[in-house]
Amino acid sequence: MKLEIYSDIICPWCYIGKVRLDKALKTLGGKVDFKVVWRPFELNPSMPAEGMDRKEYRTCKFGSWERSLEMDKEITAKAAADGLTFHLEKLTRTPNTFNGHRLLWYAEKSADKAGIQEETEKDIQDTIAELLFQRYFCEAADIGDINVLTEVAVEAGLDKTEVQAFLLSDEGVAEVKAEAQRGIRLGISGVPAFVLEGDVIASGAQTPEHFIELLTRVYANYSA
User: Fold this and answer.
1) Is there a contact between 36 and 223 (Cβ–Cβ < 8 Å)?
2) Domain 2-223 sits in CATH 3.40.30.10
3) CA angle 92-101-135, nearest 5°?
4) In 41-190, at which residue ranges do the beta strands (DSSP E only) sit?
5) What is the pTM of this model?
């Protein structure tokens, strides 16, 4: 069954949620069989293509830079409890994430063309999601930069020349926008949101224990 995760790659709770979901799926092992697929949600849909100075953007969004720093400190502590080391103090820009979502779409769709087996396809897209989160939150990289996106894709096993050509084209633009609109039609207004067979089954970064209970229950219901 397809377990779709609507997320944005600059959403800290999406990264934390991924870590917790991975723990749950590892614990469950062969008791459930889900294909995890990443879907687009833009927290900042009006963000300029080149991104914005992070201090300027977050001061405007949250009322003050001091409030932004307090929030960074809080989420860094939350992430640390799940084994993640955030370095938000090193971030200088808030990126536009649309090309990152296009890359995730490309990773899913390119498998058929490359003759990659389904299990490998899933791993490539999930690996790219993990790397994008890691680059942004832990390494303070500008994941709106095409060069950074290309590096991530190559590390995940995709062809550099093909990825560069894709990112410089308009391929996938309409499709990613359509997938984002589908999320809105499903009633998703915040992320992460987890969708199974077209139904939203959870929102937010659930604990591993909650994921285990939830996934066991819904797997039994949907596969009955």
Assistant:
1) no
2) yes
3) 40
4) 52-53, 93-94
5) 0.94
